[in-house]
Amino acid sequence: MIELTDSAKEQIIAYFQEKDPTPVRIFLNSGGWGGPSLAMALDEPKYTDDTFEVKGLTFIVDKDFIKEAKTIEIDFTGMGFSINSSMDFNSGDGGCGGCGSGSCWY
After folding, report:
1. 100 pLDDT exceeds 80?
2. Strand 37-42 vs strand 2-4: parallel, antiparallel, or unpaired?
3. So where are the chain's domains?
4. Which of 6, 58, 69, 79 would bridge with 23, disulfide CB 3.0–4.6 Å?
5. Domain range 2-15+23-84, CATH architecture
6. pTM of structure
7. Is residue 50 exposed (0-12), middle (13-18) or buried (19+ Cβ within 10 Å)?
């Protein structure tokens, strides 16, 4: 399941304002300086995906991944998109130690 705040919806709709809407993939970004995190990208559905229509927008997520993530929450603040789930990415050596708050903003 995907939860989308009104501010995130407005930003995504603004992006597509003069473009043909494309499904937005939510996926596990496994690398980077901050360790694993959730990310978004434009993509087309695959047979291994679940498709979600949320507030007039189409999101796609790998079926196995959404079982682990359960609910994915997408928000937008002045700092950018924040994508969260019940998954714990801060265990072990990774994480977002540079953020200062323990929660990364993308």
Report:
1. no
2. unpaired
3. 2-15+23-84
4. 58
5. Sandwich (2.60)
6. 0.78
7. middle
